[in-house]
Design brief:
The chain has four helices and 28 strands. With about 270 residues, it is α/β, with parallel strands linked by helices. The chain is elongated and about 65 Å long. The chain starts with a strand and ends in a 15-residue tail after the last helix.
């Protein structure tokens, strides 16, 4: 396969196109864009700004990548959008670059699936193997851990962290940090349990899964003491568990909106 650029595509001077790239009809590529080898743009894809896209990505019609962020504080700074390798980016997906108000970069990892009308706002960090279903939206400064799953039409507010392998239900509003391996459901998301299926599919040992179940019961379903006290007790009780330690560290470093808790227990 050789690089093929359709005659109707507009490639601005300065754009760097890798080997064996396919660019379909009516695509528009800006002057600062870098597209890695073997990436496919089907048609009507628009990529602008200081945007770097890795290898073996597949981008579907009407995706818009790298245009100015939807942030009134943005003053035209030369911020970046960096997308990894082997992602599938479906129709109408939008991904915006960073801003001077944060890290000047939006980063999307590799091996992700971003279904129709997904939006990734400015200064977000999205890990590897993330799946965002149709119209899932994350606001500015959100961090999404590796392997997370975001259901259709869910919305995540600014400056939220979604932990590794967490699962967000469809049409859920996420207003607080989501622990690694947690499941969030409801109109105003609440912690409904652990993503046990995801843990099992990832090959996590049964002993570790049991440790996580005990942690969940003792920390997130208990009403004894405060969550801070419960998490410190768990740190002593499960000091040898890598997975438990990951959740404990996550809770200790909670963001400005706290940790998402079960509906009946807000810590």
């Amino acid at each position: 396969m050789t690089t093929h650029i359709h005659s109707t595509a507009v490639i601005h001077d300065g754009a760097r196109i890798g080997a064996n790239v396919q660019i379909g009809p009516y695509c528009v590529i800006g002057p600062k864009v870098i597209i890695g080898d073997r990436t496919i743009l089907h048609s009507h894809v628009v990529i602008d700004g200081n945007t770097t896209i890795g290898t073996d990505n597949e981008i579907f019609p009407f995706a818009s990548l790298g245009h100015k962020p939807q942030d009134l504080k943005f003053k035209g700074e030369d911020s970046r959008l960096v997308i990894g390798d082997r992602n599938v980016i479906r129709e109408y997906v939008t991904m915006n670059p960073g801003t001077a108000d944060d890290r000047m970069e939006t980063t999307v990892g590799s091996d992700g699936l971003f279904m129709m009308s997904v939006h990734i706002a400015h200064d977000c960090v999205v890990g590897d193997r993330v799946i965002m279903a149709n119209a899932a939206t994350i606001a500015g400064h959100v961090v999404v851990g590796d392997g997370a799953r975001l259901g259709g039409l869910c919305a995540v507010r600014q400056k939220i962290r979604i932990g590794k392998n967490a699962m967000i239900g469809g049409m859920t509003g996420v207003e607080s940090d989501v622990i690694p391996y947690g499941m969030i459901v409801g109109e105003r998301g609440s912690l409904a349990g652990l993503n046990l299926v995801g843990l099992e599919r990832s090959g996590v040992e049964k002993t570790e899964i049991n440790n996580l179940r005990h942690l969940f019961k003792n920390v997130f379903e208990s009403d004894e003491a405060t969550i801070a006290q419960r998490i410190e007790k768990a740190a002593n009780d499960y000091s040898g568990s890598e997975f438990v330690t990951e959740i404990i560290d996550f809770v200790r470093n909670k963001g400005p909106y706290g940790i998402c808790m079960p509906k009946s227990n807000h810590g």
